[in-house]
């Protein structure tokens, strides 16, 4: 059974429901997010999780290490790390393929030393994101690259960043206590202004801290998802061919990827006026709580090192039901029909 | 704007949505409710509130007093208390009026001493609820009859039960701390098997404890509200006329009352099979947490004294939006159209 009923003629009712939920949510919550002057207690954070709105947390110091290039290189030596490489800084994003079709493009993943990664990043904000560089490198392996679920289950798998573990706590104590569970994955992220994370939502509670540089978030509540023009895109991956990165469509048997078509939700006019994006920057020794299901688009203006702790979401109660409902109520057309695929990406 | 869209032809889509939410909620949550062997910490209760499912709490001792008839009478003396009086034990319930129409009937409220109230209650479970008694008395004034919001705001109003206050804590510490607010109202309830509370939901978080006797709850999640056949009923009040209680319809200008038409949701076959009622009894020194929006029907089999603490619900976040949506999505016809009013009450 779907929540849509059986008839296509009911589309306007679904859309009315989505718009009502979006407007009602905004009426009750506004655009406000709380800013905490220090880390919360477990009880304070449990109250925050109930409300499920983002919170900026100041004076969050994950570790006392300095995260300079020299320090990172000295700790990591020649150990190979997996780095996302794209021609345009948009990994996991909708991209025009050489055949004129739009694809959900995964980056090439190449192994290199920390020094090679950092040599390819720049603090030059003028060139950031303009595609001037031939290729963009972003450490965003996000598979629990520092601590994965195995670590917490007593079956540790190998981490490319094992030598950095002493600088990265395996959990956030007040979050672990509030949620009564260990993290599912802990990641380190290293990139520069050339990289952008396209807008998406995760099935996790997320504590995300910047330890060097600054991240710029554009956030939308789950109820505003209908404004993001989600469509189905064929899957593709960048591969290196004779030295160049080329986008290689996956076999047709691969399931299409549901993804937002809005490339730049942080820019004025790119999303419907009914949506109410929240723009917030996270600086060194600050953290942001991104609740499960919240849409986020992430940029950075210089070399930025960040850490995040993902915690499995609570499946009991109403919140997961509601997120599923918001997801399943939406019509999700193909991103490439009627030659309007490229028009959909703005 | 309503969540229904503009056309009556969309009714099946609304119904499909309600049924989908109900089924999905049940798939994820089942019929399970947690039973705690003792009172939770504030943090544990904050986690429970996030999930928003009922919990039975054992070893909850509100006070050490014995709550016997003698004790209550000695403490209260001749102080007048407000008691709900009905001919059938159904205060605030759908009732057939003398003109063949169905009404939402409020009880007569009569002042009497504690002794008069208790003299009219019986532990005889055989006669309970069978309408054998000419009139049914139930202390259910539920207006913060022990402590009202004024008490917590430093502007105490008078309580009919002021002399019982030393036996009734003004709050539940772990709940106050978890929710970070004082109660909105604290009530004492005294009744017997002749009284039944019809199924309804409240806009409050509710900690409800039995200090003498036993209460039998039938609970339904907010998503099962569509199974309760809510309809609009004209308002009426029992008044005493030449010694008898008669149901007096309110002036036609009074707004109709939206109320569930299902009188006996605890009996097999009275609600659609898609609903999943949870039946749970609460005994002396036990408490139940009834989350905001949960439907509850309450019975008792002997003289039962209960206390409850209502806390204002959290309006921020998604949960209130969701409760409003579930409420507004439903079609709520008149309870008296097409001569099917009395058929609706089963």
Automatic annotation (TrEMBL), chains A, B:
Domain of life: Eukaryota
InterPro entries hit by this protein: Cupin_8 (IPR041667), JmjC_dom (IPR003347), RmlC-like_jellyroll (IPR014710)
Pfam family, one: Cupin_8
Domain (JmjC): residue spans on this chain: 147-326
Name of this protein: Clavaminate synthase-like protein
